[in-house]
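Thread: quick sanity check before group meeting

JM: Hey all, I'm pulling together slides for Thursday and realized we never actually wrote out the predicted structure for the chain we discussed last week. Dropping the sequence here so it's in one place. If anyone has concerns about the input, flag it before I start.
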Amino acid sequence: MRHFPLYPIIALLLSTSACNPEVITPEDSSPKDIVFEAKTYNFANADRPYRRGEINLEDGVAPSVVVYLHGGSAKGDDNSKQMREPAIMQIAEYVRKHGISAIILVPQCPEKDSQGKMMDWVKMSKALEYLIKSEKVSTDSKVFIFGGSMGGTGTWNMLSTYPELFTAAMACAGNPRGCDAGNVAQTPVYAVMGSADNVMKPEEVNLQAFLDDVATAGGQYEFDTEEGWDHEKTCKDSYTSKRLDWVFDH
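JM (edit): ok, ran it. Output follows.
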């Protein structure tokens, strides 16, 4: 297990505020008792929305930090659209059932920056690092990151940009183009693609070639291509117990 330095100054600078008391869960999800409180954090003089859930917290146990990055259709500033992705509750329910002490973070990516340029998770990487490190309560805290579509691409980018930050990761229907395979190799990662994905087309992404470079650099990975799965199905149905076992066993 990697050990990371504490970031007390960052933690003190983090500002959070409740935006909405309601519980947001996908329409077909359960259980309803997993609460994701609406909050904001301030980074680079901007208040940024995210949801925060606490599961199985215990005195004397350093909780893991679990981050989920949503896809492009959930961008905005309402702090609710991102919570409609079913992967969030699939991960949260797995964490609850397996007795994992965790803080789950679901940030929302804005549509545009202050200059009116379109945003994505790659451009949000510094803000994400800030939020994650501010939630690490101990050097013993593990950090896991998940994401689908734009969030899958963002997951690859975070592994490449911050190779010492994460314990393990899962990237679904994402593109690692431009990422450093040597950096990514420092974090065990599970990748899933759909053979019928017309958004992240497998033949264009050529993920296996990138993962070959990760393996050459000494990295550990699993890679599944689901036959017949389109983009939406890959983002919704990839988070099986078997794959989550692999990620959280690290």
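AS: nice. Residues 86-97 form the longest helix (12 residues). The longest strand covers residues 46-55.
JM: adding both to the slides.
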